[in-house]
Amino acid sequence: MATIHDVAKKANVSVTTVSRVLNNRGYISEATRTKVFRVMEELDYQPNEIARSLLRKQSNVIGLIIPNVSHPFFSELANHVENYAYDQGFKLLLCNSQLDPVKEKDYIEMLKRNRVDGIIMGSHTLQVEEYKNLSSPIVTIDRQISSEIPYISSDNYTGGKLAANLLADKGCAKIAHICGNLELQLLANKRTEAFQSVMKEKKVAHLIIQTDMNVFDQMQYEPIMKRLFEEHPDIDGVFATSDIIAAFAVKQCAAAGKRIPHDVKIIGYDDVNAASLITPSITTIKQPIAEIGRKAVDLIMRQLNDEPFEAENILPVAIVERSTT
Fold first, then answer.
1. Which of 46, 245, 301, 324 has the most neighbouring CB atoms within 10 Å?
2. Same domain as 195, residue 163
3. Which GO terms describe its molecular function (predicted)?
4. 145 and 173, same domain (yes or no)
């Protein structure tokens, strides 16, 4: 495998000159630059990214820690983060924590060893001290862990209010809200707060069902929905905290012989691509997933460049009505 010394020798220049070409630093004539790149191509020279990052004191790599890469919201988010980061000259290291604090800590240590320029925290464990003690720029998604660390969230309270009002205004007399585990202290809990407020105001019968601590474990959704309709056959409205949970509600309604939206009306949250593809298509609260991804990268870059930034970044939501209501 060719080394930087081999490139310098064949191009008849110094190692320092090759390094300057690689890192785009200092004055290098166009003729010398072209010659060095031609030799690199001839020798199939692959620069050592770690060595280059040590020279630049910047790796041009951002770490993204998410709880479950198979969950449509996080897979779509990761896609947008990667696309925008790449456009800005950054690569992405994707870490799938599976809501395991030990695994998440290991990933944090790995990101530190690889000298990433920043970390986007999309995970949802109860352990946050590891993030507070990092010196790298950090951005959190749907969670506020410090007044100094910027966070991004959709307007969860408005989203919960929109969903609750629509179900009530459609005439639902008993509404179930399926949410994540409220012990996690996520900003998404505001959806539940808004739902409860609307139900109380409109005097509508309702119940709240929480998932277990691994809120993105899809294996639990079907039993939850099956038990709901068995124990509460008079439920005529469902507000699910994700489109995936809403899809399981649709499936269980079919199994129970309930017509949608005649017998049961269903609203999800996120507006992932699958929400519009299944039959019946799911009414949902649309999060601006692409904008969340772009904003996360932008906030990392602002911190890297010592530019001013807002610690609180609440993005608007909208209701998208489809066949389930």
1. 245
2. yes
3. DNA-binding transcription factor activity; transcription cis-regulatory region binding
4. no
Same domain? For 129 and 69 the reply is yes
Measured CA distances, 127 to 149, 152, 212 (Å): 15, 18, 17
4 falls in which pLDDT band (50, 70, 90)?
confident
Is residue 199 a contact partner of residue 206, using CB atoms and an 8 Å limit? Answer: yes
Q: Which of 203, 240, 236, 204 is nearest to 224 (CA)?
A: 240
Give the HSE-up count for residue 291: Cα atoms under 13 Å, Cβ half-sphere.
13
Per-residue pLDDT at 56 exceeds 60? no
pLDDT for the residue 185: 79
SS3 315: strand
pTM: 0.81
Residue 229: exposure state from Cβ atoms within 10 A (0-12, 13-18, ≥19): buried
Residue 49: which pLDDT band, with cuts at 50, 70 and 90? low
Residues 269, 203 within the same domain: yes
**N residues, the chain:** 325
Least confident of 18-27, 108-117, 169-178, 257-266: 18-27
> CATH code at 163?
3.40.50.2300
Range of the domain at 8: 4-47
Antiparallel, parallel or unpaired: β 138-141 and 174-179 = unpaired
The pLDDT, as a whole number, for residue 54 is 47
